[in-house]
């Protein structure tokens, strides 16, 4: 089973490759990207993006895209769908600066995977995980906000987890697992 993942983010691609290979799904990367609209809704961003990808698709491949965000409760959900931009501009240190003296550290990571093919309407798959913003950066694994997001009650940041540990519990894992289960049924119906 072949799927094209449209992303320029090599970290996301390798994480998805690791997760989906367990389901026998062969992932290929398309780094051309897609138009990413500005919206407060990750689902709206992904739905628009996967439709845009399909407009230029010239073959019968199955395509996925993924968008994710860190939602911090004390900051009213900021940075949310603007996480990539916020990470590039102020990074982990900037978020920790915004959180100085804030007792409520609750946060969640949200991932949305969009799927489409020439013979399927777009389908979205969402994954969420809850945790807290750490008081300082910890760990060298992962990417983005991973070193400041403490997952659940583990006491570990995603940055402290090995790729295998993170791949077994992350927001992206949950969304991709939902996609994988859907896609295996989709392939059976087409056979």
In short:
The protein is α/β, with parallel strands linked by helices and 191 residues long. The chain has one domain: Maf protein, CATH 3.90.950. The chain has helices spanning 10-21, 42-56, 83-89, 91-98, 163-167, 171-190, and strands spanning 2-6, 26-30, 62-72, 79-80, 106-117, 120-133, 149-151.
Would you spell out the secondary-structure blueprint of this structure?
Layout: E1 2-6, H1 10-21, E2 26-30, H2 42-56, E3 62-72, E4 79-80, H3 83-89, H4 91-98, E5 106-117, E6 120-133, E7 149-151, H5 163-167, H6 171-190
Parallel strand pairs: 1-2, 1-3
Antiparallel strand pairs: 3-4, 3-5, 5-6, 6-7
Helix pairs in contact: 1-6, 3-4
What does this structure look like?
The structure is a single chain. The protein is α/β, with parallel strands linked by helices and 191 residues long. It has a single domain, classed as Alpha-Beta Complex (Maf protein), CATH 3.90.950. The chain is 35% helix and 27% strand. The protein is built from six helices and seven strands, in the order βαβαββααβββαα. Strands 1, 2, 3, 4, 5, 6 and 7 form a seven-stranded mixed beta sheet that branches. A hairpin with a 6-residue loop joins strand 3 and strand 4. Helix 1 packs across helix 6 and helix 3 packs across helix 4. The longest helix has 20 residues. The protein is globular and about 55 Å long. It starts with a strand and ends with a helix. The mean pLDDT is 94.
